Amino acid sequence: MATLTPAPGAELNSMLEALAEPAALLSPDYRILAVNHAYLRYYGHQAPVGGHCYEMSHGYTAPCDQAGELCPLKGCQQSGSRQRVLHLHNTQHGEEHVDVEMIPVFNAQQRAEYYLEIIHLVRGACADAQGEGLVGRSVAFNQMLSMVQRAAPSEISVLLQGESGTGKELVARAVHESSPRANQSFVTVECSGLSENLFESELFGHERGAFTGAISRKSGLVSAAHSGTLFLDEIGEVPLGLQVKLLRLIETGNYRTVGGLELQHADFRLVCATHRDLEAMVAQGTFRQDLYYRISTFPIGLPRLAERWEDLPLLCEVLLKRIPGAEQVQVTESALAVLRGYAFPGNIRELRNLLERAVLLTDDRLIRPEHLPSRLAEGAAVVTVQSDATTPLPVMTLAEQEQHYLRQLHQQFDGDNRALAARLGISERTLYRKLSQLA
Predict the structure, then answer these.
(1) Region 171-180: what's the mean pLDDT?
(2) How many CB atoms are located within 10 Å of the residue 11 CB?
(3) Is it the case that residue 91 has pLDDT exceeding 70?
(4) Position with higher pLDDT, 320 vs 43
(5) CA-CA distance, 64 to 420, in Å (whole number)?
């Protein structure tokens, strides 16, 4: 039996209350020794002291690392230093993303006697269909969100890299909303489809008479982003001739309006996005190397939809809620099976388009395979169930069928949860949760 660490003194309890975010002191054997009032308000637990942290946050019966997740306390014990991990925690608001920071507290003998857990709340993302902004819970999504949480509190330049339709503007907004500039403006500059002259005018603004049609003075988007965040979407499309002016703006914050002589100054946080290979463009001479190094200080890769299949049902539910008139429409399991067999080159944007089309074709608010384009079914696995007409199949609910299937697979994989989760296309955390629910 594990020995319970002595309760912390008044000094450590006062330290907890000095923290505005939810915080707890943990023993080396994962027991909660003390919490602050912010912890109680957020998690809604009346008496968490004495229980295990993984019971309170996840409902697990064993530490997170035994459920296929990274455990920050375990990481502290192994490294002897501070750890940060993005988790999904059970709170009074439901399951939510949190950025868990774990700090070892050493005694006079330089042995970690306690562990300080600070819960940084994640803004701009949710794990269910009720929220706005980014939505997801898959491993690939959480890895991306973890990078956002690392970058957001600083002033570092962020470069979002991902295919078209992966939600780069939503991720840029999440960076902004989790930053110290969250209460200021978030300004998007669409870099594609604009000529060099028009782009410069949109970005920097122009003076009256600067060019034909400039009948009055106009402020640019850089001015609008002052004190906030400037998001340059598809920066790979910026004309080469304008890149040097953009570089000067980023490095100094100074610029001149088109036709103006007076030097202007803007203070902004820079976030850029592109679907292009900027390194290849640098090699080809179509993108300035110095500009690339300036904007790519902290690159974040956005996963393709094909890399986050676990999120597909959730994304369908969310997108249907955001499509006018489709709030009550649902996607059937058979239609989901077809969607899972499709590569989605257009990612989430293409998924939304498919759902908008299907909503118009269904008459009973249920999207079935026949409401999806026939090309989606090509390459999808077709499962044929044969039965003897004289021997009817036993009737089971879908939940019972899933449990029966998981029992058989779990035996087949000899308890190798990591391999089984990878084969099923789900996270080890989700598999652990499903296995723990087996009757």
Answers:
(1) 95
(2) 7
(3) yes
(4) 320
(5) 18
CA dihedral 276, 279, 281, 283 (to 10 degrees): -160
User: For the sheet containing 186-190, what is the strand order?
Assistant: 186-190, 229-233, 269-274, 158-161, 298-301
Spatial CB neighbours of 193, under 8 Å, sequence gap ≥ 6: 237
**Own/partner pairs, 277-280, CB within 8 angstroms, 24+ separation:** 278/159, 278/236
Neighbours of 332 (CB within 10 A): 14
Question: Residue 389: what pLDDT?
Answer: 41
Q: Whole-angstrom Cα distance, residue 116 to residue 118?
A: 6
**159 burial via Cβ count (<10 Å: 0-12, 13-18, 19+):** buried
- Please give the pLDDT value at position 434: 79
Q: Are 380 and 342 in contact (CB under 8 A)?
A: yes
User: Average pLDDT, whole number, for the chain?
Assistant: 86
Q: 78: helix, coil or strand?
A: helix
Phi, psi of 147 (to 5 degrees): -65, -40
The CA distance from 426 to 221, in Å, is 42
Rounded Cα–Cα distance for residues 19 and 21 (Å): 6
The 3-state DSSP class for residue 95 equals strand
Two structure tokens written together for 39:
């912890």
pLDDT for residue 140: 93
What confidence tens digit (pLDDT) does each residue in 351-377 have? 999 999 999 999 999 999 999 998 887
Burial class (CB in 10 A: 0-12, 13-18, 19+), 243: middle
**Is the distance from CB of 26 to CB of 57 less than 8 angstroms?**
no
